Amino acid sequence: MADGLYADGIAAGRLSGEDYEKNFADLHPPLDGHEARVEADRCYFCYDAPCMTACPTSIDIPLFIRQIATGNTLGSAKTIFDQNILGGMCARVCPTETLCEEACVREAAEGKPVQIGRLQRYATDAAMHVGRQFFGRGEETGKTVAIVGAGPAGLACAHRLAMHGHTVTIFEAREKSGGLNEFGIAAYKTPDGFAQAEVDYVTAIGGITIEHGRALGGDVSLAELARDHDAVFLGMGLAGVNALNAVGEDADGVENAVDYIAHLRQASDLASLPVGRRVVVIGGGMTAIDAAVQARLLGAEEVTICYRRGQEQMNASAFEQDLAASKGVTIRHWLQPKRVLAEGGNVTGIELEYTALSGGKLSGTGETLTLAADQVFKAIGQTFDAAALNGSGAAITLDGGRIQVDGEGRTSMPNVWAGGDCIAGGDDLTVSAVAQGRDAAESIHRVLAG
Ligand SMILES: Cc1cc2nc3c(=O)[nH]c(=O)nc-3n(C[C@H](O)[C@H](O)[C@H](O)COP(=O)(O)OP(=O)(O)OC[C@H]3O[C@@H](n4cnc5c(N)ncnc54)[C@H](O)[C@@H]3O)c2cc1C
Ligand code: SF4
Q1: Beta-bridge partners for 10
Q2: Ligand 1 atom index nearest CA of 149
Q3: N or C: where does the chain have the smaller number of CB atoms within 10 Å of the terminal CB?
Q4: Percent of the chain's residues with pLDDT above 90
Q5: Which has the closest alpha carbon to 31: 62, 66, 68, 3?
Q6: Rounded alpha-carbon distances, angstroms, from residue 90 to 41, 53, 124, 164, 238
Q7: Which residue CA neighbors atom 4 of ligand 1 most closely?
Q8: Of the candidates 72, 68, 65, which has an alpha carbon nearest to the alpha carbon of residue 46?
């Protein structure tokens, strides 16, 4: 057994340094210039392009692809950044198979869409590599805006406000910016410190100060922010995690998938990260897939995802499910956790109950199955932690546990807007958070400009 063993079956350093490097390399390596032009030539440059409608940030996709095809790569990057200043990250993490590429006419015609995401990465990487900025800070308006959270929603909002000349202060609870781009997205989607490079690129416009280690609800209150600024934008994401509701879930070896992934993303040496030999992941979304795949890549021998409904109901896309399968992860359906088994306080397995739909309602069948496991990840959804808003003066209305906003992104509190994962009715994607941050900034600007 390798050094770093801290519980039976959970050990660090399962692989060689070479294997870690290979396993966590870029999932989709960048296109080179020739590949990019060949791919760009496949675009039909459709009038009323359906891909544009399918992109939550409405990037002018046919235009940016035409610009690549004609050798105007920096012009192409500007077209992307016009709509989506985090276009570099979105190019890496968007589930394009359910967004722009699903709508591509070539997908319908021949099952092989234009690789819009990879082309977007080609153009944005080129601009960021040479540090080319396309947007200057607008003339100072003297108005100040407080933003809570330096994730995709907060950063997109801050950049657009700076373009309009407002002065922005971001209050970020963590010591680093980027939100889930830095702490959540799978390591193989955004290697080589890209998340921080993008934060630097976005804030280089000027007029944006980020105060790290400053949490709403602890270090500052919403009432103070609203009093001291002309407007406030809440882009706080989801800080809570759902419980398994299984007996014994506090055993050692049962962990929140999101916390584990955050450790992984911040680890300077992947070999220092302990992982089980037999890992069970409970959940059916992107987090479950990411936890399972990364556990495998860290050297776990058996990784099983258990989801309480069928394959069609999984939130993870078909591409993500195939990726997990290709890495040797087993996905089992119609199973819900019942009891965590432990010995000496350490998890040894999990008892699951089969589920079935009856009259449209999901319930346990009474039949059970036990899987041996020395590590169990909970990935059954995150929740908005409204406690940070408590004591903040005028109440913020919630809807289904998240912040309610109107079509402009305004909350129920005057001069307070919100966007990203923390608002009700979203789809919990990076690109949607960017769109909502950007649009809220436009709404704030309209109000501040009178
Ligand atoms: C494991 C995982 C993998 C994912 N993979 C993908 C993917 O591949 N593709 C994709 O499109 N989407 C993915 N997502 C979803 C995507 O990351 C989110 O939709 C997106 O990050 C939301 O952006 P946001 O700005 O709303 O929130 P966040 O990114 O969560 O940022 C919120 C920020 O607010 C800060 N904050 C929170 N509370 C406070 C407070 N009280 N005071 C001050 N600051 C605070 C946080 O520290 C954080 O920096 C994934 C999510 C997870 C959990
Ligand atoms: S931002 Fe995402 S959805 Fe929009 S065009 Fe780019 S890859 Fe597609």
Answers
A1: 7, 276
A2: 34
A3: C
A4: 91
A5: 68
A6: 22, 16, 10, 23, 19
A7: 185
A8: 65
pTM over 0.70: yes
183: nearest Cα among 54, 290, 110, 102: 290
Task: Compute the distance from residue 181 Cα to the ligand 1 centre, in Å.
Answer: 7
Gap from CA of 422 to ligand 1 centroid (Å): 9
Residue 344 φ then ψ, to 5°: 60, 30
User: Could you tell me if the CB of 405 is within 6 A of ligand 2?
Assistant: no
Q: What is the pLDDT of residue 394?
A: 64
CA 431 to centroid of ligand 2, rounded, Å: 7
Tell whether the model's pLDDT for residue 5 goes beyond 70: no
Residue 96 Cβ inside 6 Å of ligand 2? The answer reads yes
Q: Does residue 155's CB lie within 6 angstroms of at least one atom of ligand 1?
A: no
Ligand having the closest approach to the CA of 97:
2
Which of 53, 58, 100 has most ligand 2 atoms within 8 Å of its beta carbon, as the pocket-test mutant? 100
356 C-alpha to ligand 1 centroid (Å):
32
pLDDT in tens, 253-263: 999 999 999 99
With a cut of 70, say whether residue 381 has pLDDT above it. yes
Query: Token pair for residue 393?
Result: 């003066």
pLDDT on residue 243: 84
Ligand 2 binding pocket mutation candidate from 115, 116, 434 (most atoms within 8 A of CB): 116
User: Ligand 2, atom 8: nearest CA belongs to which residue?
Assistant: 100
Span 116-174, pLDDT tens digits? 999 999 999 999 999 999 999 999 999 999 999 999 999 999 999 999 999 999 999 99
Rounded to a whole number of angstroms, the CA Rg of the chain reads 23
Residues 254, 103: Cα–Cα separation, whole Å: 40
| Cβ density class 38-57: b for 16+ within 10 Å, e for less | ebbebbeeeeebbbbebbbb
**The pair of three-digit structure tokens given for residue 79, joined into one six-digit string:** 């077209």
Domains of the chain listed by start with CATH number: 10-25+241-381 (3.50.50.60), 33-129 (1.10.1060.10), 144-239+384-448 (3.50.50.60)
pLDDT for 393 equals 58
SS (H, E, C) 229-270: CCEEEECCCCCEECCCCCECCCCECEEEHHHHHHHHHHCCCH
Q: Which ligand is nearest to the CA of 286?
A: 1
